[in-house]
Amino acid sequence: MREKPILFSTPMVQALLDDTKNQTRRTNGLEFINENPDRWLSASIVSGEDDKILAAFRGKVNPLIVASAVECPFGKEGDRLWVRETWQNGGWDGTTTVSPAYKAAGHAHLCGGWRPSIHMPREISRVLLEITDVRIDRLQNISAADAIGEGIKAHESWPEAPDVPRYQLYGPLYEKSADKLGYETISDPVFSFFTLWISIHGDDAVKKNPWVWVVNFKRL
Fold it and tell me: In terms of Cα–Cα distance, which of 5, 3, 82, 25 is closest to 216?
């Protein structure tokens, strides 16, 4: 069993703590593959040396031959991920000073501003995850259930439509919708997740349909 760090944004840390996020999609290590993601017909998970797992890609030239294999940088089933989040040595929880302080906990920083998650040391990480499954897929293949599992924020249904779910819109699409269209949610969880992906990776990030690691986990 190995332990590795993993970065999460403040909203996603909150989703982890609320137990509404049980998976993540990442492109780490797949940069070469995603230079031309349509070049690859399929990919599968195989075992590598030292009990590691690899994504084996088959190309269009000869789909019977594994053209490229990439090691999963996050580990395998049973391995653990300790979460790095935005933090500070000292903060205010509304009543007393706390140390360390976590932005996702709603703490107010006292001085110096928040420290980026990349600088969080292992000893003050408060969220530990255990990997339950790893697979490889194209981003646009995400299902509605998996989009919800990504931790998108759910809102209460509209009173006039109690059976219609509502999910948050994120980033530029949220801002455009809220400013010009008068709404900030949508009933399609996949579209909600795509707006989240775009807010992190850029305007064309969904259109490119990259290959991604799909890492499922449980919080310990």
Answer: 25
Nearest in space to 212 (alpha carbons), one of 51, 36, 37:
37
The three-state secondary structure class of 50 is helix
pTM beyond 0.85: yes
Tens digit of each residue's pLDDT (9 = 90 or more) over 4-24: 999 999 999 999 999 999 999
pLDDT in tens, 35-73: 999 989 888 888 877 788 899 888 877 766 667 789 999
The structure tokens 């084996």 sit at 56
Residue type, 114: W
Domain edges within the chain: 3-85+125-219, 86-117
Asked if 171 and 199 count as a contact pair (C-beta separation under 8 A), the reply is yes
CA–CA distance, 218 with 20 (Å, rounded to integer): 10
CATH T-level fold of 3-85+125-219: Sulfate adenylyltransferase (3.10.400)
Instruction: Please name the helix (run of DSSP H) or strand (run of DSSP E) that holds residue 55, with its range, or none.
Output: strand 53-59
The DSSP-derived string for 151-188 is TPPEEPPBTTBTTS-EEE--HHHHHHIIIIIS--EES-
